[in-house]
Amino acid sequence: MSELHFDRHRRLRKNPTLRRMVRETTLSADDFIYPVFAVEGEEIKKEIPSMPGVFQFSLDRLGDEIAEVVELGIPSIMIFGVPSEKDAVGTGAYHTHGIVQEATRLVKAKYPELMVIADTCLCEYTDHGHCGVVRDGDVVNDESLELLAKTAVSQVEAGADIIAPSNMMDGFVAAIRQALDQAGYQDIPIMSYAVKYASAFYGPFRDAADSTPQFGDRKTYQMDPANRLEALREAESDVQEGADFLMVKPGLSYLDILRDLKNTYDLPLVTYNVSGEYAMVKAASQNGWIDEKATVLELLISMKRAGSDLILTYHAKDAVKWLKEDAR
Ligand code: PBG
Fold it and tell me: Residues that bind Mg(2+), according to the entry (predicted)?
């Protein structure tokens, strides 16, 4: 034994206090963005079956949910709209009194300090469920850009603080930046879903937002999960076009991409810990197969460690409660 030389890594793991001192990454309420589903109608608080603990709220019921988010110290929400009527061109997305616009007005009137991020996309509002104008079975890029730009401007007119375009049309950041600037909104940041994969993990969201494509899939506009270099090209375009934040979506299976972007760009980086990721954790923990709190906090810290500055997650409220519990 006397000839044996090795490092004693365990020295720094000896007790909780020491572990706290050498911890490289931490989580706090400031890291989170909480997604909220606003639905047209009245007296609706409807749990999404595949997302236990997540609800669709009509505007008259949204107040308590937002109050809880604010009370927990979460600085920001992302609002998704579930309209009662849809059409081929997604009129509800850019209507002055659309569901997201009305929800935004309501929230901002009561909580001016809460940052409201608008998801700027058409799929929740189109009857075919695609993210833009469809012709000959595919989404037409440039025409869709016009509608997207209109949507962004109407969301900002309603009070949205940040625009988050998620439809993956080429040039969406450029088109939205130009439209916002022309409308006098030079100071509104764009949080681009720069790298968004055509993922199976969006399933529960599409139940929640009623936005499943009625034919085909999103593979002509969302990215192939097999590609890494293409993610860098996507991000580069958005940076050139003027994005203020970059997002990677989904989170868990794409932590390598997140790290690549962190190493390449100095913009704030966001991860979307998506609905399917949430559903997996919920299902396993409800079966008693994993410890929900420990699992969620581990997943979230991993996203931060991988390079995320902000995490858009359905676990946000629970995570903050657990962090507070642990701090006591
Ligand atoms: C809109 C949009 C989607 C999600 C966020 N914005 C669905 C999709 O692209 O099909 C998914 C979020 C989640 O799964 O939690 N385009």
Answer: 234
The binding site for Zn(2+) comprises: 121, 123, 131
ipTM, 2 decimals?
Answer: 0.96
Asked whether residue 83 is domain-assigned, the answer is yes
Of 117, 133, 142, nearest to 33 (Cα)?
117
CA distances from 225 to 149, 195, 206 (A): 27, 10, 19
Q: What is the pLDDT of residues 72-119, one digit of tens each?
A: 999 999 999 999 999 999 999 999 999 999 999 999 999 999 999 999
Residue 212 in tokens: 């499943």
Q: Assign residue 252 the CATH number of its domain.
A: 3.20.20.70
- 122 ligand 1 Cβ < 6 A: no
> Is 110 annotated in the active site?
no
Assigned domain for 12 exists: no
Distances (CA, A) of 185 to 77, 106, 162, 328: 20, 20, 11, 43
Residue 324 designated active-site: no
Residue 143, domain member (yes or no) = yes
Domain that holds residue 204: 24-327
What letter represents residue 9's amino acid?
H
Question: If we measure between CA atoms, which residue out of 322, 303, 302 comes closest to residue 312?
Answer: 303
pTM score, whole prediction = 0.96
In a domain, 285, yes or no: yes
